[in-house]
Amino acid sequence: MLPKFDPNEIKVVYLKCTSGEVGATSALAPKIGSLDLSPEKVGDDIAKATSDRKGLRITVKLTVQNRQAQIEVVPSASALIIKDIKELPRDRKKQKNIKQSGNNTFDEIVSIACQMQHRSLIRELSGTINEILATAQSVGCSVDGHYPHDIIEDINCGAVECPDS
Questions:
Q1: Which pTM does this prediction carry?
Q2: Which residues pair with 33 in a beta bridge?
Q3: Which residues contact 63 (CB under 8 A, 6 or more apart)?
Q4: Do 56 and 90 touch, CB atoms closer than 8 A?
Q5: Which residues pair with 31 in a beta bridge?
Q6: CA 73 to CA 85: how far, in whole Å?
Q7: What is the pLDDT along the chain (165 residues), one digit of tens a residue?
């Protein structure tokens, strides 16, 4: 016999999905079907909550209580960098393997590092800034007109000062 349903119990589910699009309900059903939620309704709610980052693969946190889902976007470093360089939204089915060509400022990189520091395993902010710069390098954007790896080397040798926290 199944245990009794507790309406005050909170369950958390993390999903990886494409933002701004209604995902396939067949992919959502195994993850949220056991929580008695409609995959179609949850897919529509995810599409509404992630419409500002259209075309990016992002992680979504579903908090379910009493068969009601609250959707929260968990930002990744690459999604924050792409959002900061203000790239146009893309249709992922038509445009493949896009290299971003924007330019971030060092202050934007520091603010992204402050947002991501709680998810990083590095103790100091300078290490988290290096992580974000490496992500900017892999995305393909520059920082203050310079190649991000040059700024990483400057931080490591002490030529660029990083804020404490």
A1: 0.73
A2: none
A3: 10, 11, 12, 69, 70, 72
A4: no
A5: none
A6: 19
A7: 556 667 778 888 888 887 777 777 777 888 887 787 888 888 888 888 887 777 778 888 989 888 888 888 888 888 788 877 766 556 556 666 566 667 778 888 888 888 888 888 888 888 888 888 888 888 888 888 888 888 888 888 887 777 776
